[in-house]
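Deliverable D2.4 — example input (structure tokens):
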């Protein structure tokens, strides 16, 4: 009876079932069977593309930090670029600058990238590139930022979670406004 309990400790329903070959719902010609089905998103690699940590005013700045909290400025950007058939590089860029009064405590800049295979319809490519991929990369970037600031002698900087969906929506609204402004500008120059 003990053998029956240990045979399958995890029930099968917790796993995605294997696709049946030739089930006709693949949307293709059916000749390839299951070979047509590709995952929507595959992480091919993750890497530090660029990194810099500077603390030019140490050790003097540590005295200032004893009495005052630093003013921290954070800038973040997300970029996606095609690198071939369904291959994309997504780069999260973060710059953190900490100052105490007018004294620079540190600057930490990191470009953390991922190389992805993305197989989605074209209308879904933008959200996958600029929302889903950054969500995958973010925890790794956050750890590197915390480790590097801590290793630099400062309190580890823990980057707050980022709403990449809102950033994407803001970017799309800016692009739409820019396109409308260009269209209105072109239309008025034709009438002149």
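Example output (designed residues):
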């Amino acid at each position: 009876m003990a053998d029956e309990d240990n045979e399958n400790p995890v029930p099968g329903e917790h796993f995605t079932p294997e696709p049946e070959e030739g089930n006709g719902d693949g949307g293709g010609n059916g000749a390839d069977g299951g070979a047509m089905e590709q995952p929507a998103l595959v992480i091919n690699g993750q890497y530090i593309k660029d990194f810099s940590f500077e603390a030019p005013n140490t050790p003097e700045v540590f005295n200032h930090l004893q009495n005052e909290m630093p003013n921290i400025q954070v800038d973040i950007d997300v970029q996606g670029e095609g690198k071939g058939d369904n291959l994309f590089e997504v780069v999260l860029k973060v710059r953190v600058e900490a100052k105490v009064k007018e004294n620079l405590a540190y600057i930490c800049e990191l470009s953390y990238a991922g190389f992805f295979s993305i197989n989605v319809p074209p209308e879904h490519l933008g959200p996958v590139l600029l929302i889903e991929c950054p969500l995958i990369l973010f925890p790794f970037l956050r750890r590197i930022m915390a480790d590097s600031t801590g290793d630099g002698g400062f309190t580890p900087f823990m980057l707050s979670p980022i709403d990449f969906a809102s950033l994407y929506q803001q970017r799309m609204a800016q692009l739409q406004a820019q396109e409308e402004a260009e269209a209105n500008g072109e239309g008025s120059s034709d009438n002149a």
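Residues 127 and 168 are 7 Å apart (CA to CA).
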